[in-house]
Write a structure and sequence with these properties.
The chain is α+β, with helices and mostly antiparallel strands. The protein has helices at about 25-30, 80-85, 155-170, 180-190, 200-210, 220-230, 240-250, 260-265, 275-285, and strands spanning about 10-15, 20-25, 40-45, 50-60, 65-70, 95-100, 110-120, 125, 135-140, 145-150, 215, 290-295, 295-300. The protein has three domains: about 10-85, no CATH class; about 95-205, no CATH class; about 215-295, no CATH class. The strands form four sheets. It has a five-stranded mixed sheet with strand order 6-8-7-10-9, with helices on one face. The protein has a three-stranded antiparallel sheet with strand order 1-2-13. Strands 3-4-5 form a three-stranded antiparallel sheet, with no helix packed on it. It is globular. The protein binds zinc ion.
Length: about 300
């Protein structure tokens, strides 16, 4: 298993489900804590009774978890509620602000601006741009809220649905690599014209995991794909044998390249990113690609 080497490790045992949880966080965030202060992190995992739970962790400078507070689904734990648990009050750490950089191929046709208010990573991610119609939405547990200005031609209900799906995916990700937000906006911009169906949700998820997902294929998958092409092509979105073929062949025997590496090193010249994501998603659903995602590790004993 490969873990992003820039992250620092926090390990603790969940008081509810007794699992040992290992999470990785950005050390620059952690260096902001002074010697007496704690920093707040939220660990989301399948907890007691296999229910998704969010645990607020108060972590000291030496990465020891000093206290943990479960957040009940659907409730917003306020500062008063938390202090009533009789635990050390964490030092408030200010949100940092990070700009989402625009790749050359980003056209800002439909997506004008974006503001992701991310309480899990204590960061606001911002895409600047021209005026549009404002839409907003938030994630299921309320840790992420997103505002966007979109082209007035875009149906607002649909844009809101996209933002809500995006927020919930961001909430379930521990290792968010900011570079992928530039790719995310590239994908979102043309796709705001469509409804977010199951496939688009899977694609969003793939994009946000593209630096911790490893696509694998084999010669055998490749030859089956060639033989089956005439039967499957009508069910595929992109009308190009060579695009699908390129993606599969570049993943044969792959071990160390992430999805983003495969795209940047081999494919970017020939295939637009949005199409690449669609191709990967379809190939993986048909079983011609396996995508191994590395997110965080849970050790159960
Ligand atoms: Zn737990």
């Amino acid at each position: 298993m490969t873990i992003h080497n820039k992250k620092v490790k926090i390990e603790y045992e969940c008081n509810l489900c007794r699992k040992t949880r290992v999470i990785y966080v950005d050390p620059t965030l952690h260096s902001e804590v002074d010697s007496k202060g704690y920093i707040e992190y939220v660990d989301l995992h399948n907890c007691e009774d296999s229910k998704l739970n969010a645990i607020i962790l108060y972590v000291d400078k030496s990465l020891t978890v000093r206290s943990q507070v479960p957040v009940k689904l659907g409730t917003d734990a306020s500062a008063e509620q938390i202090s009533s648990f009789n635990i050390p009050t964490p030092q408030k750490v200010d949100f940092s602000t990070k700009k989402i950089s625009k790749l050359k191929s980003f056209k800002a046709k439909n997506l004008k601006t974006l503001l992701i208010n991310d309480r899990l990573r204590q960061t606001k991610f911002i895409l600047d741009g021209s005026q549009g119609v404002e839409v907003e939405s938030k994630s299921e547990l309320g840790y992420i809220d997103i505002k966007a200005q979109v082209n007035k031609q875009i149906e607002q209900g649909r844009a809101k649905e996209w933002l809500s799906k995006l927020a919930s995916i961001l909430e379930a990700i521990i290792l968010l690599d900011e570079e992928m937000l530039s790719y995310l906006i590239l994908y979102l911009d043309p796709n705001l014209e469509k409804n977010p169906s199951t496939d688009e949700i899977l694609e969003l998820d793939l994009i946000l995991h593209a630096k911790s997902a490893y696509p694998h294929s084999t010669l055998k998958f490749y030859s089956v794909f060639r033989r089956q092409w005439s039967n499957i092509k009508d069910s595929l979105t992109i009308d190009s044998f060579s695009s699908y073929e390129k993606v599969i062949t570049h993943c044969i025997g792959n071990q160390h390249k992430t999805l983003l590496d495969v795209y940047q090193q081999k494919i970017a010249k020939n295939i637009a990113f949005e199409d690449f994501v669609t191709i990967v998603n379809e190939l993986s659903q048909l079983g011609f690609l396996n995508i191994e995602k590395i997110e965080f590790i849970t050790i159960t004993d």
